[in-house]
Amino acid sequence: MDLKGEYRIAAPREHVWALINDPQALRECIPGCNSLEGSLEDGFTARVTTKIGPVKATFEGEVTLSNVVAPESYTISGAGKGGIAGFAKGGADVNLADVDGETVLTYVAKAQVGGKLAQLGSRLIDSTAKKLADEFFASLAARAAPADAVAAAIETPAERPKARWFSR
């Protein structure tokens, strides 16, 4: 399976770089992530629960970073086993670029699945992978947004217009 995407994040590249290298931030952004432990230098172990079509599985695996060019790019590689559901392995080249004070994150990924997952069909697997990637990057973008932008987007109860009920 091949997957690629581009996301515009309203934050400076250095800030986005710090987030995509922060285990706590990643754990909170990865859909279904139960645990993520380790370091950038030694790699990470992860436990993620996800559902692909009718198959729900918990994957345990390892993730490593290579070709690191801070704060511009790296290659992320990993493999995970999901018990009887099968396995998944692959990697992605991730690039960050400054564009008008924001960060454009692009990635190109290749992945392979086996076992029960492989029987589901590539269209279902591809659409689920794209959905999970979109959820991850939406969460990352929200986390990267400047605090004043987030505060402006949240309405406090005092600022909401009061509902008016009329009866006749």
TrEMBL record:
Gene3D superfamilies: 3.30.530.20. It holds the Pfam family COXG. CDD domains: CoxG. It comes from the Bacteria. InterPro entries: CO_DH_gsu, START-like_dom_sf. This is Carbon monoxide dehydrogenase.
